[in-house]
Amino acid sequence: MSKTKNLIAMAFDTGGTMSDTFIIDEEGTFVVGKAQTTPDNESEGILNSIEDALEQWNTNIEESGGSLEALVYSGTAMVNRLLERQGNSNIGVIVNAGFEDLHRLGRALQCWIYLDYAGRLHAREHEHPKPLIPRKQIKGVRGRINFWGDELIPLYKEDVKKVVEELLNKNVDSICVCLLCSYINSSHELQVKLIAEKVMKEKGKEIPIILSCEHNPVRGETPRLNALIIEQYAAEPSRKQLIKIAETMKQKSVLAPLRILTSYGGTISPYHKTLIPTMVSGPIGGMIGTQFIAREYGIKNLVSSDVGGTSFDVGLVMERYVPTKWESSIGRFILNIPMIGLDSIGAGTGMYVRYNEVSSRLEFGPESAGYKIGVCNEESGVETVTMTDCSLILGYLNPDYFLGGKVSLNKERSYKYIEEQLAEPLKADPYNTARGSLDLIEINMKNHLNGMIQGLGFRPENYTLISFGGGGPLHVAGYSRGLNFQEILIPEWAPAFSAYGCACADHSYRHEKSVDLVIPPDGSMIAFVSSILSSTWNELKNNIIKEFEAEGRDPNEMIFKPSLRVQYFGMLDDLEVHSPVEELTLNYSPQLERYDSPELKDIMKSYDDLFEEIYRRGTKSPELGYHITKAIGTGIVPVPKPKLPEHKLSGENPNEDAAKGTRDFYWDNKWHEAHIWEMGLINAGNIIIGPAIIEAPATTLVVPPGAQVKLDKHRIFHLEV
């Protein structure tokens, strides 16, 4: 019989393969649920994963959902729509005359940013991404604002009227307006909107008019246009799905409003005017969780590695600082939306493995079986071998315990397909072929991981590694081999770690504005810069207050956090530093014979210190002066956070009831008899010595020969290889 449980927060992470749910009660303890993703109706898979989680507490959502205070969603549907080019291309665009090909030409960076290191070196592999909308739907109007915000050429209003009529006659679903330098002077874009609304009224039509000056007023014409288009192409089509999830939860007696995780680590409403900040919410959850673990464990440098069904995502926490990029690449398009710094490659457990008859070698992806798993899932219809099939025949996975036995895997079928599709063309043993396939993909993961760390001038020895995602515990021993991390951490809740990160995210909005202010080495511009920054922060704060008021939130609950993006003058990359105040004071200095701002000088000192922590002292260059690229305002309403579980430490030897017998697995070109353990029955303090396999319904931890893991009091495994 079910009972009522006082739940505080619930987070979902809907991936291409699995939907995870992370639920916290009033004491801060949590449970994790997992189910297969249902792409056509995401709410169905989410409800299944909620049921899987709440069964552990002998309750259900109808009985206990009413007490929830926070409800957060993250997922990959939007980014998958962009990657697969399955979005809505019926979009009209208005740009400055002469810039009609801007979306098609893009930036040179877009030709190679998606390639690995070898591909970037060879120009013959560089290729522009295919435009998302036809050239005939992009129209130009005359008029020009310069870099300083001055009007050089007035807007030709007849041009605007003509192109709006042409786009309406094409029955476009929306019109995006992106004019040069509108982030600093929005007058021309606002005039376009007024004229468009008048034309629509005359024609009896009404479609959304989206302005870049309102959508994302930051420098960078190409990424600003891309963001505007992708919003309508890939993000907006998900709105109905998100609203359906919100309504489904209300029907289940959940009163808390649904929030969507953003790329900068906050959450917004599914009814928010723009959804593009939520495009890559899934991987971002893992980074937020990583930051939480770094803070709780007192770890300065922590690298996160997330192995999912379709991708391998890596992010760095440096000196407890999580970098935020203001220019990112999604689906080979450069966007200027704020995003927690992480990088991804196609290297997931569902990735297809094929033999290339031309090159006589194995190739991986880019397609993935996703929620269909592989040929081992007979009901999936998959006919191409996946990484999961390779892990299955090598003995790492239990065919009768996938998702706790809810999905039965056919090991013999995997062996047959690997033999026919891969081993026979290679004239090799099927087991060696399967292990070789995993070795190749794990080497790719390892190189990606090592490259991100060494690219910043560090070595793995400076970092602790945390591995999560459904495939993280399965592959971490392989992709960390030889990298000599300080420690390797694997949370027991690794398969739902991204959902855990969602539960750590506050309700927040982040607004940015390009300012491009310079403080010379002599500090002579400090008074002018201070007044502009105070004014800009006040503008951003008022805009955020309006966001909260539109949702029915009391703005008095909000904590406003101002910050800046700063770089040394002449440098290419900036860092984000926080300001202790939202209004900078000015004091007259008789010695300098000018006004000075002590708070702004402190902010620049904070930037110097942060730069030194990340890049080391020798690279600091305050003698060049400072370039403030952006002013940022973040409004935060804190939500309940999970607590790490606390368990009393037991002895090193696990209880007998945790043992599940033995199974052979293949490692380093030979078979080993591995002890099998049930993850949930291992006690804090227990040590498991390899060769061993630790099984859970949602993941499998492989402990190779010569390695061992110890479970700490917070139920996080420490792997020694």
Architecture overview:
Helix content is 30%, strand content 26%. The chain is α+β, with helices and mostly antiparallel strands and 721 residues long. Among the domains are: 7-79 and 238-278, 2-Layer Sandwich (Nucleotidyltransferase, domain 5), CATH 3.30.420.40; 91-172 and 174-207, no CATH class; 507-637, no CATH class; 656-720, no CATH class. It has an eight-stranded mixed β-sheet, sandwiched between helices. It has a six-stranded mixed β-sheet with strand order 3-2-1-4-11-12. A hairpin with a 5-residue loop joins β11 (258-261) and β12 (267-268). α3 packs across α9 (221-235). It is globular, with a radius of gyration of 27 Å. It starts with 6 loop residues before the first strand and ends with a strand.
What is the fold's blueprint, element by element?
Layout: E1 7-14, E2 18-25, E3 30-36, H1 42-54, H2 61-64, E4 70-75, H3 77-83, E5 91-96, H4 102-105, H5 117-121, E6 138-141, E7 144-145, E8 151-153, H6 157-169, E9 174-177, H7 187-203, E10 209-211, H8 212-215, H9 221-235, H10 239-251, E11 258-261, E12 267-268, H11 281-297, E13 302-307, E14 312-317, E15 324-325, E16 328-330, E17 333-335, E18 339-340, E19 342-345, E20 351-356, E21 361-368, H12 387-393, H13 411-426, H14 430-454, E22 464-468, H15 472-479, E23 488-491, H16 497-503, E24 507-519, H17 526-550, E25 559-568, E26 575-578, E27 587-589, E28 594-596, H18 598-615, E29 626-637, E30 659-667, E31 670-678, E32 687-689, E33 692-695, E34 700-703, E35 708-711, E36 716-720
Parallel strand pairs: 1-4, 4-11, 5-6, 5-9, 9-10, 13-22, 22-23, 31-33
Antiparallel strand pairs: 1-2, 2-3, 7-8, 11-12, 13-14, 14-19, 15-18, 16-17, 20-21, 23-36, 24-29, 25-26, 25-29, 27-28, 30-31, 32-35, 33-34, 35-36
Helix pairs in contact: 3-9, 6-7, 11-16, 12-13, 12-14, 13-14, 14-15
